[in-house]
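thread: overnight batch results

M.L. [08:02]
morning all. the overnight job finished for the chain we discussed friday. pasting input first so we're all looking at the same thing
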Amino acid sequence: MKKKLMSLALALAMCVSLSIPAFAEDINSLADNTGEPSWPQTNEAAMPAVPQTLRSMGTLSLPARQQWVDETTQILEDGYHQQIKNVHETATTIVFEFSEPSEENFVFGVNYIQKEEYFKPEAQNSTESAATKISYVYGFADGMYENGTFDDGGAFGNWSSIKDLILTIAGLSKKTSVAAAVLSLCGISVNFFQPTTPVKVDNLVQYYVINKVGMVKDSMTGMWVPLAYVGLRKDFRNFYVYEKNNGYLNKVAENVTHPNSYNNPTNPDATHAKAHFWDDNWIKDKALHIYEHDERAYMDVYILISGFFHDTYPTP
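M.L. [08:03]
and the structure it wrote out:
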């Protein structure tokens, strides 16, 4: 028992202090990948079981489940400072969906909760020792990135010296030269600039991330413990071309993809998913395994944004 409590304390400490590397084809590290998510702690009850004779019906109408939904809704709204807009069930889960903030009130560089999926006890194996859920945590990284690092100034120099530099550009399948990218994305030919013209090209990306977090309810503390993190990243291209005249940089052209949603945008230039991101059962089982065997939390994410939305920010 003492060992379990010690392990949970270490797991929680690691979850809020570990520096998480980002892994992708063109990414080594990210400036805001601090690994310090000040995770709101909640202690909502585990989902109550229902009689086997009633399992073929929708269980949300059953009194015990109705009461649990009401109590859980209040705890989650108080803990995350977001409103729940919908509760529905599938064959194996009950899902709490959160309202998304309006575009004008959206805060970059913090986490929001998209939804929480609680696994029904009747859908779990008889050998599973604790209640489980998956939290969908999303947000936009604060700032722009270039070649996987925080904006470092881009390609800048005489056109003749930068036009053949090779770039990796979100949405383009192959690496390409500056001149080919400027032509493909902006319609500007290689002869548009004089060889000695100072030109700056910013090949930037805006990152949206959503991390699925497998959580287990600890039977001793009553708290939900985050133990398995698996991520997805969506890339939005921000490509700019500048020409320097009379000491000033003047924008000549741009190719920018604006997200069509801040909650779950569907128009990225590129999407990258970690192994097992689409397998909720794997995430749940991984979290349970870690809990039952006193292991370190599992993290396979692109970016772990530090901090959560809270009521000191503009309310949705």
